[in-house]
Specification:
The chain is of the alpha/beta class. The protein has 9 helices and 7 strands; from the N terminus they run βααααβαβαβαβαββα. The chain has 2 domains: about 60 residues, no CATH class; about 130 residues, HAD superfamily/HAD-like (Rossmann fold).
Length: about 210
């Protein structure tokens, strides 16, 4: 089970593009992509609030909606897969792994990204925000994916770059792989393994499987 943003795909440029498009509408200068990236992790409303601190008083909900609508129409303008994603997914699927993407991003734009980047043919299921009543770190999205794929929690992994993924792993009883190359942080959560690139995943899982 894979997180999307910061794990499978680098989505920061398009998120920054949406923020900066709306900032321009308010007469504000563009923010560097790295600045927007550093503010990710707690949802779009929080991102909007934190990227409009230099603006005159705004209606945060209305501005968030504008950022969201622009972003949803531009989710694959500059978004790209991390190195080795398609090859790794193809190899894992070939040896029998069931593959799922579980993201707190709403399922509609998540599917658009996975379709546009060629990931969807490798997935057995996609669980996005809105499918379940709760989001990661709640275990419900993971339990839904396990049920849909017929997999056992104790034999399954979640691969992600944020504490929400690790919390979901702990709550669902699955193994956790933390991606140090992503956007998030692991806080105080324990992990089974860390990887510095997506390409390391194949060796990890196949070695673990053989062991």
């Amino acid at each position: 089970m894979f997180d999307l943003d910061g794990t499978v795909a680098d989505t920061c440029a398009d998120l920054a593009g949406a923020v900066n498009h709306v900032r321009a509408e308010h007469g504000l200068a563009a923010l560097p992509v790295a600045t927007v990236t550093s503010l990710l992790g707690n949802g779009l409303k929080d991102l909007t609030t934190r990227t409009f601190t230099d603006a005159p008083p705004i209606d945060v909900d209305a501005v968030t909606e504008r950022v969201k609508n622009y972003y949803w129409s531009h989710v694959v303008d500059e978004t790209c897969l991390y190195d080795g994603v398609l090859e790794t997914l193809a190899h894992l699927k070939a040896v029998g792994y069931k593959l799922a993407v579980i993201t707190n991003k709403p399922e509609g734009p998540a599917k658009t990204i996975m379709d546009g980047l060629g990931v969807s043919p490798y997935l057995d299921c996609l669980i996005g925000g809105g499918r379940c009543a709760k989001l990661k770190p709640d275990p419900e999205p993971l339990f839904t994916a396990l049920k849909e794929t017929g997999c056992d929690a104790a034999q399954s992994w979640i691969i992600g770059d944020n504490w929400t993924d690790l919390g979901a792993a702990a709550n669902a009883g699955v193994k956790a792989c933390f991606c140090t190359y992503g956007y998030g942080s692991k806080r105080d959560y324990a992990v089974d393994v860390e990887i510095a690139s997506f390409r390391e995943l194949e060796k990890l899982l196949l070695t673990t499987e053989q062991a």
